[in-house]
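1st attempt posting a full record on here, be nice pls
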Amino acid sequence: MSTSTATIVFTGGLDLVSPSVAKKPGHCVQLHNYEPNTLGTYQRILGYERFDGRPSPSAYAPAGAFDTDEEYEAAYIAGRELRRAAIGAVPGSGPIRGIAVYNGTVYAFRNNAGGTAKVMFKATPTGWQVVTTPALPAGGRMDFRVASFTGAADAAELIGVDGVGQAWRFDGTTLTFITTGMVGVFPTHLEVHPVSQILFLGYPGGSLQYSEPGKPSGWDGANGAGELGLADELVALDMQAGGAMAVLCRNRTYLLYGAISTDFQLQDFSRQTGAIPGSTQSIGEAVYLDDRGLTRLSRVQQFGNFDGATFSQPIKPLIDRQRFRVTCSGVVREKNQYRLFFDDGSGLICTFAGSEVTGFSTMSYERVVRCWVSAEIGGKEVCLFGSDDGYVYQAESGFSFDGQSYTSAMRPAFHHYGNPAQKKRFKKLTIELETAGRANLTAVPDFDYSSPEQPTHESLAIEAVGGGGYWDEAIWDQSRWGSATVYTAERYISGVGRSLSVLLISTSDRQPPHIIHTMIVDFIPLGRAR
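the predicted structure (as tokens):
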């Protein structure tokens, strides 16, 4: 009998809800520590490394000449680990309470050793240094904004709240508390209107208060300050394109129009959809997790309170299982990604291409992410997160998890290759992938939805060497001129079944991310399964 060939393009991300026979080829039932890129294909995630202002471990470059690649690699690893060992945790106790970037400097907050107060630190070329401030109460969950209340670029300040003390403003030298007249109740969220420079503070009990225009310390109602009642617990404030402010409560959503109090219009946007605390981020518009799933303002407006307002239907079982375990969320703007983190150390990646979702995947940094910030420093996006061990880590940096290897796993949906009732004799797999260096993977063919009646196939080793480039189209120091631009791994397999999937696993602490594009399957059609 003649051999048939089928090509599967890996794209679309996780699908945990479609019936097995209906899942699209290239979608996955497992996609962990891979991320759908803006084209939809699957790329191994970057690593992270500890941060305190000193040079990153992965940026170490050995000096001098080396006779062999092995000597160079040994020198690189030794120097990298010396750098890593020198980078310290933020002094104190408990988890990192918040991270902010202001005027190109990274600030972190952590309780002192006795847990009696919170201390502000800044990252410097010699590590974390204490910033002298009035006493800050211990604990809390911090929210920050950088704003200029005069409109001048050189007058920007860092504004912060934490739910356990007064709001404050910091000008790079002095931290000053903002006194609003509230006693015994402290703000949990904030936003600054970019036109009128009004400071909004959200309080427990559904109180949204706002300052006098351009005066964050002015709270006199006669001069334009005031309060709005929300009838629900406030979860997040987020300015939207066009000047409206999204006011997200736990079970309802408002939009606040207008720049000053005489123009304010608080309009009901949805009385039954809201946000889970810690889940709100802005990617062109507010994106957040509701009890029904992930959503954004435009979809709520289009679909109202129905399930169609969510865009996370392909991963609904995961959302239902994890929605009450959210610790924080973040964005990676260069990748157009929204990330959601949970208290078991796991996370969710959602990648957008414009307004469309290219796919979902899961991830784990093998530690709980308590807070996340994405900011531009020196013209480049820098992503930082804080964890329970008191370290601040730089995400999207290096090829390891702070020096440790990590595993990425991908299992595409089982595919029946045209006829779910027909048996096939599977002969060969061809995996096409792209890498800037080396990529070691293990492939394990799997037949008939992992049926126990099927014998276990031996694992197949793949060692890809990439980094190839075309003359005048690639960067000299980032290409291997003798390597392929796309590596093709051909492996013979032996198995009979109606459907086939392949588990692909990669574990490393030093290999650059690879992108898996395509799987080509050669098989011989047999008779109908009986």
